[in-house]
Model the fold of this input.
Amino acid sequence: MNKTIFAIDLGNKAAKLIREGAEPISIPSRYIESTYVDGSNKFDFTAKIFMENVDVKKYKMVNQSNSYYFGKGINELGKDEYVRESFGVGKQRYEGEKFQNMLSFSICELASTFDEQIVEVDLVLGLPSEDYTEHNTKAILNYALGQHSVEIDGNTVNVDVKVVHLIPQPIGTFYNQLFNNEGEPINHEWIKQKTAIVDIGGLTKLFDQLQNFKMEETEREQKETGMWTLYSMISDLLVCDSSVKT
Done:
């Protein structure tokens, strides 16, 4: 019996999801409580129009009363004070409600087209290199293992995560370049040579080196700046320059 494997990289700016037989999905790591949209006047469009956006769905944990909009189209809301984002690193992020909600939403989204009442899967999660610590991995495993039940647009999706594989994000990048879809090496010279990997994310920059399939821990660096830092600098410059119309 073939295993069903889900792979998720829940970054600060985007959640990247993939499973065999489906196209990769990239969803902004932000969501909004449905009460701020449904029947409210907090945004300049109606809830009906919002509900018709095929790139946004309503998610609700079955054991919670609140529901949320989450999906590719969420950025159409703009940067509003009601939109929740999963910014952060380390212990505070992985034990927080926003990270855990988005992880459950992402797991169940990958299973949303399955026919089974309960979908059994192995889950692969990527972590920033310096977040790959005993405390962080324990916190993620405690939440990720077991059943996740989420209503997606009113349909309940149940997923039972049997095994969780946590890997540093650069390892995934390395494997993607080293192997083809059948797991066969296509860049044989990479197997023994030292390889440097730079991963620029929303809030972090990761610098790692690998040799013989092992991370060089003494050659590792993580900076708490990323693309969001660049966006903020550009925005600040535009605001300061009165000649630029935004």
Remarks:
- The chain has one domain: 5-190.
- Residues 97-110 form the longest helix (14 residues).
- The domain at 5-190 is CATH 3.30.420.40 (Nucleotidyltransferase; domain 5).
